[in-house]
Amino acid sequence: MELRIDRQAMVPVVQQIVDALVCTIHCNQMMPGTRLPSVRAIARINSLNEFCVVQACERLVAQGVLEPCHRAGYLVSAPASVVASDAGWIGDAEFDPCHSSCELQLGAGSLPDSWRESDDLAYAIREVSRTDMAGLFNYSSALGLPRLRQQIQKCLKPLDIHVEDSRILTTDGASQGLDLIVRTLLKPGDCVVVESPGCPVLFELLRLHGISMRQVPRTPLGPDLATLDELFAKHRPRAFFINSFHHNPTGTSLVPEVARQVLKLAREHDVLVIEDDVYADLHSSCGERLAALDENVIYVGSYSKTLSSALRVGFIVATAESIERLASVKMITSMGTSGFSESVLACLLANGAYRKLVQRQRQRLNNDRLALLQLLEDAEWEVFGKPVGGLFVWARSRMGDCAQVRAQARRCGIVLSSTTAFSSEGTVSDWQRINVACAGDPRARAFIQATTPDRPQAF
């Protein structure tokens, strides 16, 4: 029984063993009464301490998943799904309550729990609780916590985005930021241009507000400029939403010459550019942002992707006039943001802990990305753009039969993203968003290897 244990993760080893055992029981569909290998065997195969294995098994006994067998180890007592948490969004846009939390979501939109680091976060929470009582009980100001906006201002300077902190508005993550922009600056019936493939959450948000969408194809260098020019001229859109660096879902980044042409077209056709750069901190070099080239670009960032999905803090950079309007709507719709969350993030930015965290994340992602790209090449998958940073790789199997690929994924305990999630028009695609941080899982490797075109398949 081989378990995936990440000794670099901040998640305790015992908890990793618990999670791995639950996944093994679920994916192998072990029936009640099935005997697990002995504690000694599990420990030996996975180079673990026997005491840690016993602790993990006893936790599962307490949860009703295992039952002890006198002098004979442990038996499966109930399906592992009884301890599964609520299902999440699959591919950012497909909710299916039948999915179990112990299935590997290969196209997940954020870092897995095993990558999250709690020590610095826990320290910052204690520090804020000790020194900032107002942050525990009160709303933040309309623009957001001043010292946090000052820290964000410093973080933007290496990206050549030089703004006063009065032009920065904090939000409950990038999702609220985009929602505020759509609510405030657009109206039902307006037309906007979005990238294809693109972000499913953005598509759903625009539909919710009655906004009409037109698609521009994403290339490895950025949006297709000829199509973009045609769409701007024909439909006179109010805005263009673009992922600049480590695009969701392709992982590609905007190159400088394309960035300048995008802005040129936007100025010629009077189109508002909204730059979504939520994966900025996973970029190894600075790059050239649209907001650095034109102060009229609205720039959206977030710390939820790297620090914590639960600690919702994002921000918007815009002109002073736009910030004033956005802040007004923010106060009407949410009474402000969490002063506590903003204080915790400000602490992490000020003491340097956040900077060191993302440095570690980038290094791990770089190593895992190289391994994934080699694995995909060996399995003869087609890769879009071969990203050099960020969280995603956009690829597809050359087997040619999408149904067979998805069936094989299920056999390996993997949930793939929806085939229509990344198109605003619901177009079916056989391309898959692969989360680099999830691809090192043995189930992911087994799945990709099993889809090699000339390899016999077990369907």
List the keywords.
alpha/beta, Arc Repressor Mutant, subunit A, 41% helix, 459 residues, three-stranded antiparallel beta sheet, 17 strands, globular, 16 helices, 3 domains, Aspartate Aminotransferase, domain 1, WH_DNA-bd_sf, Aspartate Aminotransferase, domain 2, DNA-binding transcription factor activity
Question: How would you concisely characterize the structure shown here?
Answer:
The chain is an alpha/beta fold. The protein has helices at residues 13-27, 39-45, 50-62, 119-131, 133-137, 146-156, 173-185, 200-208, 225-235, 256-269, 290-293, 320-334, 339-350, 353-378, 402-411, 442-450; strands at residues 66-68, 74-76, 89-90, 94-95, 104-105, 168-171, 191-196, 212-219, 222-223, 239-243, 272-276, 298-302, 314-317, 382-383, 392-396, 414-415, 432-435. The protein folds into three domains: 13-76, Orthogonal Bundle (Arc Repressor Mutant, subunit A), CATH 1.10.10; 104-115 and 360-450, Aspartate Aminotransferase, domain 1; 118-354, Aspartate Aminotransferase, domain 2, CATH 3.40.640.10.
What does it look like?
The longest helix is centred in the last third of the chain and has 26 residues, at 353-378. The protein has 459 residues and is α/β, with parallel strands linked by helices. It starts with 12 loop residues before the first helix and ends in a 9-residue tail after the last helix. It has three domains: 13-76, Winged helix-like DNA-binding domain superfamily/Winged helix DNA-binding domain (Arc Repressor Mutant, subunit A, Orthogonal Bundle); 104-115 and 360-450, Aspartate Aminotransferase, domain 1, CATH 3.90.1150.10; 118-354, Aspartate Aminotransferase, domain 2, CATH 3.40.640. Mean pLDDT is 86; it is low at 80-100. The protein has 16 helices and 17 strands. It has helices at residues 13-27, 39-45, 50-62, 119-131, 133-137, 146-156, 173-185, 200-208, 225-235, 256-269, 290-293, 320-334, 339-350, 353-378, 402-411, 442-450; strands at 66-68, 74-76, 89-90, 94-95, 104-105, 168-171, 191-196, 212-219, 222-223, 239-243, 272-276, 298-302, 314-317, 382-383, 392-396, 414-415, 432-435. A hairpin with an 8-residue loop joins strand 14 (382-383) and strand 15 (392-396). An eight-stranded mixed sheet has the order 6-13-12-11-10-7-8-9, with helices on both faces. A three-stranded antiparallel sheet has the order 14-15-17, with helices on one face.
